[in-house]
């Protein structure tokens, strides 16, 4: 088995260090230990790891491990393995929505982690990728106006999270659709080839970007510019294929 670059997301330093030692002893690389949501998102943007080990209960974070995983997967697809002391069914059901490669209950033996990593890698290599086939569908049925309405993905300008809701801005529509759901969950249904996660609260359709000026995006047929976070600008320029002057 080849050496993998693995991201550890764990707020307990002792546990994280033990995991790092076990993975490196097995021949893998652990360039970063992220302790919270912000560090995890920065690491996945910067490194594009092969896999992530995620503690669900991140006490020193603005979001738990499941929400962190959803948002990371919207940026970069990879196998994820959850590590948790929580064996409650509701927590497992939430985690299951992100299609993890494994869900390990603490305490566990270090060799068990290494074995699960190898299984996850083999499944991916054999075509068992953690992919939601709805990602490739041309349209979605979204809960709109007390029913379900078909929405073509190509007509979506961007999605904006506001509290417990997501606003879906459509091409040539005066008002956005308002959905009561998490953006991290909704983002998995949009292809990474066309949609880009600018921030925790914003997913944009790259095909509808008409112009970029400094840290602002101008979308097609949309009067309001979108602010680009400084930590996303360089990656976005690469994604758009921007040719910069010297």
TrEMBL record:
PTM-bearing positions, type 4-aspartylphosphate: 55
GO biological process entries: regulation of DNA-templated transcription
Alphabetized UniProt keyword annotations: DNA-binding, Phosphoprotein, Transcription, Transcription regulation, Two-component regulatory system
SMART domains the record matches: LytTR (SM00850), REC (SM00448)
Pfam families: LytTR (PF04397), Response_reg (PF00072)
SUPFAM superfamilies linked to this entry: CheY-like (SSF52172)
Name of the protein this chain belongs to: DNA-binding response regulator
Lineage: Bacteria, Pseudomonadati, Bacteroidota, Cytophagia, Cytophagales
């Amino acid at each position: 088995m080849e050496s993998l670059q693995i991201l550890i997301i764990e707020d307990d330093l002792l546990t994280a260090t033990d995991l790092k030692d076990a993975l490196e002893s097995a021949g893998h690389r652990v360039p970063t230990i992220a302790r919270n949501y912000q560090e995890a998102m920065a690491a996945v943007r910067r490194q594009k790891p092969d896999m992530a080990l995620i503690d669900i209960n991140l006490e020193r974070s603005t979001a738990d491990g499941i929400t962190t995983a959803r948002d990371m997967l919207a940026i970069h697809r990879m196998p994820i393995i959850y590590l948790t002391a929580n064996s409650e069914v509701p927590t497992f059901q939430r985690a299951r929505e992100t299609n993890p490669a494994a869900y390990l209950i603490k305490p566990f033996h270090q060799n068990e982690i290494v074995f699960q990593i190898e299984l996850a890698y083999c499944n991916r290599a054999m075509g068992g990728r953690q992919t939601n086939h709805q990602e490739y569908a041309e349209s979605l049925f979204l809960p709109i106006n007390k029913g379900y309405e078909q929405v073509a993905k190509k007509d979506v300008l961007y999605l904006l999270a506001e509290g417990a809701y997501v606003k879906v801005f459509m091409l040539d529509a005066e008002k956005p659709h308002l959905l009561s759901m998490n953006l991290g969950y909704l983002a998995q249904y949009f292809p990474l080839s066309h949609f880009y996660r600018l921030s925790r609260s914003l997913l944009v359709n790259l095909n509808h970007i008409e112009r970029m000026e400094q840290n602002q995006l101008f979308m097609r047929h949309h009067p309001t510019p979108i602010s680009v976070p400084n930590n996303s600008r360089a990656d976005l320029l690469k994604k758009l294929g921007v040719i910069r002057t010297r």
